[in-house]
Design a protein that fits this description.
mainly alpha; 339 residues
């Protein structure tokens, strides 16, 4: 056999390997479902409309959230030590259709659409618990974003609801298979993956809060955020926690940068106002008093991290399948080449 013949044979073998179906959970299902599309074109046409039906479902579930949130007891949306008779007491803000409910509705429509569009393999496999794990947590996660944005409070009741949704994850792992833990591993490994996700997430955020408080001299991470990431870690698992933090910090950075620019401009405007005033000392004291009178939930310099954790978790749950493929194809492959 000549060298050119050997080279052609090697290239043919590589082509065959590229088209050989993978034996992993996700890729194996995708291979079977791609065949079923050809065998059952009517089912394929129906699946094309599922993302649109998912968007309508997201809108239908979003609209009652305003009534649900506004029916929360006042104590859920206040600090533990709040006093209704205190001089600075202020009732918690409630949802309004514009802009809060409208934003939540559009967001859930897009997320539900993406869930059915990206996860066609779960639809055809009738993996009910995988879909429940993607969709049901979006409702308490949405209210968590609203609550933390309006009142700087993450109610324990919402955290408990998010954690309770992890039951769908445990059932999906046990009955439909885990994307992150191979089937040949012991039965308790998927369970351990989710528990470690909760514990490691809470521990990391607690450590970040301690370091941030030490550097800034003030509280930098609320305990509500730590409880929230514990619940989100149960949903994502230890592997998924990497991407939850990644999405959360990316989104946080995108929002924080323009706020930082706005803060610097406001400080320069205040300093200019003080310099041009007749009594700079008195003017500075006046500005400081105005800042002290601002309620902590309306502090323009405060950025709540809870909404970004919730959004990061929602994005991971929806796009878990492509994220897993990216993890296996690039991260594990690169790590294998290094070690």
């Amino acid at each position: 056999m000549t060298y050119s013949q050997m080279q052609k044979k090697h290239e043919a073998f590589k082509t065959l390997e590229r088209h050989k179906p993978n034996t992993s959970l996700a890729s194996g299902k995708r291979y079977r479902y791609s065949k079923s599309k050809c065998m059952n074109p009517e089912a394929h046409m129906l699946s094309d409309y599922l993302p649109l039906l998912g968007a309508f479902l997201g809108a239908a579930l979003a609209l009652p959230l305003q009534h649900l949130y506004n029916s929360f007891p006042e104590s859920w949306l206040q600090d533990y030590d709040y006093d209704p008779k205190a001089k600075d007491f202020r009732l918690a803000k409630r949802m309004k259709f514009v802009p809060h409910t409208l934003i939540v509705t559009v967001t859930l429509m897009l997320l539900f659409f993406a869930a059915f569009y990206v996860n066609d393999l779960f639809v055809r496999g009738k993996d009910v618990f995988h879909f429940l794990l993607m969709l049901v947590p979006l409702l308490p996660l949405s209210l968590t974003v609203v609550s933390d944005k309006l009142n700087r409070i993450i109610p324990d009741q919402l955290v408990a609801a998010i954690a309770l949704c992890s039951v769908f994850g445990f059932l999906a792992d046990g009955l439909e298979g885990s994307l992150w833990v191979a089937s040949q591993y012991p039965w308790y490994m998927p369970l351990l993956n989710r528990i470690l996700g909760a514990v490691i997430g809470a521990g990391l955020l607690w450590g970040i809060g301690i370091i941030g408080s030490w550097i800034s001299g003030q509280e930098s991470m609320g305990f509500g955020d730590i409880k929230l990431i514990f619940a989100c870690g149960l949903l994502s698992g230890a592997y998924g926690l990497i991407f939850v933090f990644f999405f959360a910090f990316i989104l946080g950075g995108i929002i924080a940068f323009p706020l930082y620019i706005s803060k610097r401009r406001r400080f320069r405007a205040e300093e200019k106002l003080i310099r041009e005033s007749r009594d700079p000392v008195e003017k500075r004291m006046e500005i400081e008093k105005e800042k002290e009178a601002v309620h902590f939930s309306e502090d323009p310099d405060y950025i709540a991290f809870g909404p970004f954790l919730a959004l990061g978790t929602a994005i991971f749950l929806i796009f878990e399948t492509p994220v897993h493929e990216f993890f296996v194809t690039y991260i594990l492959t690169s790590a294998g080449q290094l070690f």
